[in-house]
Amino acid sequence: MEWERFVLGPLETNGYCFINEDRCLFIDPGNEAERIIEFIKKRQLKLEAILLTHAHFDHIGAADDIRMEYGAPLYVHEKEMDWLDQPMLNGSGLFFPNNPIRINGADESIRTEGRLEVAGFSFQVFETPGHSPGSVSFYFKEENLIVCGDTLFAEGIGRTDLPGGDFKQLMTSIQQKLLTLPDQTVVLPGHGPITNIGKEKKMNPFIS
């Protein structure tokens, strides 16, 4: 399996395309749907699913356009199913009140932790709330990497001052779900550079 990072939109949200032969998953299509579709077409891939680490506007903005293009199901945690078309919950109503983001409801809800298998892709879902109530992380053990949305950044952590944010809960998620992974685990965050668990244990001021 291989993966590609896309830095998308005005908030430079990281989206990730995971590729297994001629099939792919896309995690957090925050913006620039045309660019994502062009990449998938150029590589002659079949998009099997769209996954969201959470439902903030900068992580969901291109989901409908990609879903219409490929008919791929959209997955989000059940606690944020109703955020997709509610700008005050997904944050676009707070930051861009004149241009709110609303997308159609998800096709599949993530209800619990555990292994999720989608069209030949297999990975673990970790519930990592704190940045938002339904934040999740996707752990690809065999590839030694985790996609953690806005939970953990390189030398930083996700903000907790948006609706449903909880600093104590965020730190518990980081300590109990992420920092228990092997130090060499690659961390693919929702914004900023790629890092790893060992580096964050040493360098992250919120942790070390």
TrEMBL record:
<keyword id="KW-0378">Hydrolase</keyword>
<dbReference type="InterPro" id="IPR036866">
    <property type="entry name" value="RibonucZ/Hydroxyglut_hydro"/>
</dbReference>
<dbReference type="InterPro" id="IPR001279">
    <property type="entry name" value="Metallo-B-lactamas"/>
</dbReference>
<dbReference type="InterPro" id="IPR051453">
    <property type="entry name" value="MBL_Glyoxalase_II"/>
</dbReference>
<dbReference type="Pfam" id="PF00753">
    <property type="entry name" value="Lactamase_B"/>
</dbReference>
<keyword id="KW-0862">Zinc</keyword>
<dbReference type="GO" id="GO:0046872">
    <property type="term" value="F:metal ion binding"/>
</dbReference>
<feature type="domain" description="Metallo-beta-lactamase">
    <location>
        <begin position="12"/>
        <end position="191"/>
    </location>
</feature>
<protein>
    <submittedName>
        <fullName>MBL fold metallo-hydrolase</fullName>
    </submittedName>
</protein>
<dbReference type="GO" id="GO:0016787">
    <property type="term" value="F:hydrolase activity"/>
</dbReference>
<keyword id="KW-0479">Metal-binding</keyword>
